[in-house]
Design a protein that fits this description.
The chain is an alpha+beta fold. It has helices spanning 3-13, 60-76, 97-114, 165-174, 185-192, 198-207, 220-231, 246-255, 259-265, 281-290; strands at residues 21-23, 30-33, 38-48, 81-91, 117-125, 131-141, 156-160, 212-215, 234-238, 272-276, 295-302, 307-312, 318-322. The longest helix is centred in the first third of the chain and has 18 residues, at 97-114. It binds adenosine-5'-diphosphate (ADP) and magnesium ion.
Length: 337
C-alpha cells in the first residue's frame, strides 16, 4: 500500500456524514460549518526526525517555525486564516533542554507570525527520535473557501513562487554543499525556513477568480494529480513554463541532479497550486504583485484524467510524458508492494 491507498482505505471505513461537515478527508483541510457565514478549517501535519528534518543541520528554532508554516500552509490553501493550534511533542528521555527551548521559541514565533494562538496539546516520551504534530484550526467565509475539486477544463494551472527549491536545498545540506554557491540562500531557506503563502491564498479566495487550489507539499506531479482527481479532470503542463530559477539549475549541475525533476517531483515547497479561467490572467498577475509574489501560469486543465508534462525536442516537436503521482510518497518504496 502506498500513502494514497492508505488514506483511501481509512476514508472508505468512515462515512464522513454529519450535517455540519462540509468537506471531510480529501482536501487540504476539513471544512466544518461554524455559523451561516463562516466555516472552521481543520488540518494536522507531523514532522519526524530523519524523515522531515535532520538534527545535524536543522537549527531547532527554524524547525519550530517550520512546523507552524507547513500546517498553516494548508489553511492558506483553502483561502482561510489560521486561528488556533494544538501541539503534540514526542522526545527521547535524553533530550537536550537547550535544543527543546530553541525549538519552542521558533514555534511560538511562528504562531505569532501567522496569527494563531496555541491553545493545547500533548507531551510524551518517544523511544526513537523527535516527532511533533501540530493541529491548526482556521476560519474562512463559507462562500470564499477554495476546494481541490473546482478545476474545470479550459482553466489555466498556476503556481506561486519557484518550484523544487526545498528539494534542492535539502540535497545541498545533506552533501554539506550549503556554502558552495552565492545564490543558494533561497534554496536552503525553502527547506529550513519556508514561509506559507497564507496572505496570497486568502487574497485568491477573496478574489472569487480561482476555481481550485491546494498547497504544494508533495511536488507538482503528485499534488496536481490529487487536484485533478478531486475535480474529475486532467492537466497538461509545459516544462518550458515551470518557474525554475538559475540557482536551481546551478545546484542540480553541482550534484548531478535534474532541475526539472526537482521542480515536478520535489516536495515541501509550500507554494500554492491553483486553477482559474483564462480571462482572470491579468487580474491574477496584479494580485500576485500586490502580495509581492511571482505567480506563473504553467499549464491547462483538460477533460479526462492524469497529468501530462510537455517538453520541446531540439527538432521543435513536442514530447509528452505522464507524471501523475511521481512526487513524494511516504510509502512508495515499501518492500513487498
Ligand atoms: P496535505 O499534504 O495537504 O496535508 P495529505 O496528503 O496529508 O494532505 O492528506 C490528504 C487528505 O487525507 C487530507 O484531507 C487529510 O486530512 C487526510 N488524511 C491523511 N492521513 C489521514 C489519516 N491517517 N486519517 C484520516 N485522514 C487522513
Ligand atoms: Mg496541503
Amino acid at each position: 500500500m502506498n500513502e494514497r491507498q492508505i488514506i483511501d482505505h481509512i476514508a472508505a471505513l468512515t462515512d464522513q456524514k454529519d450535517a455540519r461537515l462540509i468537506k471531510g478527508i480529501g482536501d487540504d483541510c476539513a471544512v466544518v460549518e461554524k455559523d451561516g457565514r463562516l466555516v472552521w478549517l481543520l488540518t494536522m501535519d507531523t514532522v519526524i526526525e530523519g524523515v522531515h528534518f535532520d538534527l545535524a543541520f536543522h537549527p531547532p528554532e527554524q524547525l519550530g517555525r517550520k512546523v507552524v508554516s507547513v500546517n498553516v500552509s494548508d489553511i492558506g490553501a483553502m483561502g482561510g486564516r489560521p486561528v488556533f493550534a494544538l501541539l503534540s511533542v514526542g522526545m527521547p528521555k535524553t533530550f537536550d533542554p537547550a535544543w527543546f527551548q530553541a525549538f519552542a521559541r521558533g514555534l511560538a514565533a511562528g504562531c505569532r507570525e501567522y496569527g494563531c494562538l496555541l491553545i493545547g496539546g500533548d507531551t510524551v516520551a518517544s523511544p526513537q527520535g523527535f516527532n511533533c504534530t501540530l493541529t491548526v484550526i482556521g476560519e474562512a467565509m463559507a462562500e470564499r473557501v477554495i476546494y481541490r475539486s473546482g478545476a474545470r477544463p479550459g482553466n489555466t494551472v498556476w503556481v506561486s513562487g519557484a518550484l523544487g527549491l526545498a528539494a534542492a536545498g535539502l540535497e545541498l545540506l545533506r552533501r554539506q554543499l550549503d556554502d558552495a554557491g552565492d545564490g543558494f540562500g533561497p534554496l536552503l531557506a525553502r527547506h529550513l525556513h519556508p514561509t506559507a503563502r497564507v496572505e496570497l491564498g486568502r487574497r485568491l479566495g477573496e478574489s472569487g477568480l480561482v476555481h481550485a487550489m491546494m498547497d504544494l507539499s508533495d511536488g507538482l506531479a503528485t499534488d496536481l494529480a490529487h487536484l485533478c482527481k478531486q475535480s474529475g479532470v486532467g492537466a497538461r503542463i509545459a516544462a518550458w513554463d515551470l518557474p525554475i530559477p538559475p540557482a536551481l539549475v546551478e545546484a542540480a549541475r553541482l550534484v548531478g541532479a535534474d532541475p526539472e525533476q526537482w521542480a515536478i517531483g520535489g516536495g515541501e515547497d509550500y507554494e500554492l497550486l491553483f486553477t482559474a479561467p483564462a480571462e482572470a490572467h491579468d487580474r491574477l498577475l496584479e494580485l500576485g504583485r500586490q502580495c509581492g509574489l511571482a505567480i506563473t501560469p504553467v499549464g491547462t486543465v483538460v477533460e479526462g484524467e492524469g497529468v501530462i508534462l510537455l517538453r520541446r525536442r531540439a527538432d521543435g516537436t513536442c514530447e509528452e510524458r505522464g507524471i501523475a503521482y511521481q512526487g513524494f510518497d511516504h510509502f512508495r518504496e515499501r518492500a513487498g508492494d
